[in-house]
Design a protein that fits this description.
- By secondary structure, the protein is mostly helical.
- 72% of the residues lie in helices and 0% in strands.
Length: 220
């Protein structure tokens, strides 16, 4: 009688999910501490005290690991931005809160920012699993969800379609603007050549521009 536990059993699935999380956490820790080049199957397996072939049971290739790591980092980012938008109270400007949350999230994690928004996406790298299909299937739905939330928070329940479209467009442009600021910060950091303006000056300027163009949260 075969006593081996079937691979599809709940126990095996739970163990597999736990190990995948541990592998991702190890990859994330290496990324934040040492940068994108440090994330390899060999370095991750060494950090976990596993053999490299054992990693293949959970991620069959570096491409698969990279895709999952990018997706998990974007989930972290969007979770913080959603929380910032939801916390906006009466008289607050959700778009300003989101701009500051985006900056705060990646300012302390520039390696993660480079990994998500640097060469991996600017120059799609199929050899690392970052291709157009990955962007469409895993990144775009996540960002669309964020902008659905921002549109709802900014426009409120009584605005017409035209005003909702305008609010969504403003939210997207605000997101692109702070993305540009972070890109310049990451470049300056890499070159050890500080920007002319401080982070606070840049953020105060961009926030004031978008807060003048969007309504505050209204007490219901």
């Amino acid at each position: 009688m075969d006593t081996d536990e079937p691979k599809s059993s709940p126990r095996v699935r739970i163990k597999r999910q736990r190990m995948r999380r541990e592998v991702l956490e190890a990859a994330r820790a290496l990324l934040l501490a040492e940068g994108p080049d440090a994330v390899t199957l060999g370095s991750v397996s060494s950090r976990l005290g596993m053999t490299k072939p054992a990693i293949y049971h959970y991620f069959p290739s570096k491409e698969a690991l990279t895709r999952s790591l990018v997706a998990s980092l974007i989930d972290e980012e969007i979770g913080e931005l959603e929380a910032a938008a939801e916390k906006a109270g009466p008289g607050d400007y959700p778009i300003g809160a989101v701009i500051r949350a985006f900056h705060a999230h990646y300012r302390k994690n520039l390696h993660a920012f480079r990994f998500v928004y640097g060469q991996l996406q600017l120059y799609l790298k199929p050899e690392l699993g970052i291709d157009a299909e990955m962007v469409r299937s895993e990144i775009t739905p996540r960002t669309r969800h964020l902008f659905d939330l921002l549109e709802s928070r900014l426009a409120g329940p009584d605005r017409g379609k035209a005003e909702r479209r305008r609010m969504r467009r403003l939210a997207f442009v605000a997101w692109m603007s702070v993305l540009g600021i972070l890109t310049m910060i990451a470049i300056a950091d890499g070159m050890d050549d500080p920007l002319l303006y401080s982070d606070d000056e840049l953020l105060d300027t961009i926030v004031s521009v978008f807060e003048h163009a969007t309504p505050a949260v209204v007490q219901e």
